[in-house]
Amino acid sequence: MAGSMTDVWEAKFLDLIFKNTAASATTPAGLHTTNVWIALFTAAPTDATGVTGTEVTGGSYARVAVVRTGAGWNAATGTAPTLTDNTNIITFATASANWGTVVAFGICNSLAGSLATDLIYWGDLSTSKTISNGDTATFAAGAIDITQD
Q1: pLDDT in tens, 87-120
Q2: Computed over its alpha carbons, how large is the radius of gyration of the chain?
Q3: CA–CA separation, 64 and 90 (whole Å)
Q4: Are the beta carbons of 40 and 107 closer than 8 angstroms?
Q5: Domain residues for 92?
Q6: CA dihedral 95, 98, 103, 105 (to 10 degrees)
Q7: Which residue in 141, 110, 104, 108 sits closest to 124, CA to CA?
Q8: Which residue, 4, 15, 39, 42, is most buried by CB atoms nearer than 10 A?
């Protein structure tokens, strides 16, 4: 996966670790207490400028919530890189219009927030996928690999 944690969230995590800024046991670095949301993009964001990515809109599209527990993500394993991935199939609503060609995904901190502040991680899809009216986008269990060096 080509992709990365965004600069905004890299700073939040560094501040969490080294300054204990905006952190508590239940919502570290300002994370939502329960979920992260998976987003789809027709133009990939970048590390420094997540706001420039083009998220899918319209046609019944909405980010999909994934719980921030072992029910949503596997325990991190390995080193250089350390990896976690989704435990279950992630299914988007059936498209009621053409969404276009999806080239990337993102992990966000809210259902509908600003990409400039909400996009935590992003990654290119290994194969782009055109989502047409009536299609349902899904990620298989274990398909979203998140690595941290």
Answers
A1: 999 999 999 999 999 999 999 999 998 888 889 8
A2: 15
A3: 7
A4: no
A5: 3-148
A6: -30
A7: 104
A8: 39
pLDDT in tens, 39-85: 999 999 988 765 679 999 999 999 999 999 889 999 888 887 888 89
d(CA 25, CA 8): 21
Task: Please give the torsion angle defined by the CA atoms of residues 124, 126, 127 and 131, in that order, rounded to the nearest 10 degrees.
Answer: -50
Which tokens go with 106? 């993102």
CA–CA separation, 29 and 9 (whole Å):
8
Locate all alpha helices (DSSP H) within 7-128, ordered by sequence: 7-19, 115-118
Q: What domain count does the chain have? A: 1
This prediction's pTM: 0.88
Enter the tokens of residue 40.
């789809």
Q: Looking at this protein, which amino acid is placed at residue 17?
A: I
Distances (CA, A) of 136 to 98, 105, 120: 11, 15, 24
